[in-house]
Model the fold of this input.
Amino acid sequence: MIELKGISKKYGEVTAVKRVDLTIPPGCIYGIIGRSGAGKSSLLRVISLLETPDTGEVRYNGERVDTLQGKALLEKRRRMGMIFQNFNLLGSRSASANIAYPLEIAGMNKKQIEERVNELMEMVDIADKRKARLRELSGGQKQRVAIARALAVNPDVLFCDEATSSLDPQTTRSILGLIRSLQEQLKITVILITHQMEVIKEICHEVAVMDTGIIAESGSVASVFESPQTTAAREMLHV
Done:
């Protein structure tokens, strides 16, 4: 379980996140949705320990983690996978070499890396693209490489930051289906940031609606969709 208590984050004169309290249950797909500038990506960076909050606490299974430093912080970050809108892949490497990269950093031997990469490429259905260069891959295939790389070190949490925003509708459905299938198979927690309500509806179990740095509303996807309680939620739903 991930708990946020009184989280605030300021950039210069702009307060991007304002006293946020949030509980994310383990083993679910949790969506955080909001318009551009709502603070959702800033909140993600705090939850994933890429940035330290100005106020408040981040706890993983009861352990406070926002105060970790040095080796302890690196070890905790290694238990997290990240997927981005622009893929963040290494252009000089093949598909398989991109997936191998975090395993190399972790110090695995070549045989172990090869076995794990093959397993992951089968898992995300791109086993035939092992030697492919990035320029030879479609957007959906690149995102599958990115997903496999994010899962390489068996993370406890998978963060998806607008992971389908640059994809066409058919590819988006395919990638969302893959994420849902992997979450069910691996029993990991997925935290998904998006501005698209249809993405939340497609795969999320619970959702938090952000508006100007605060959590305007949160709950099960069904309850928020069926009976939105705030203006921010109704605007996202266009009702």
About this structure: The first helix runs from residue 40 to 47. The chain has a mean pLDDT of 92.
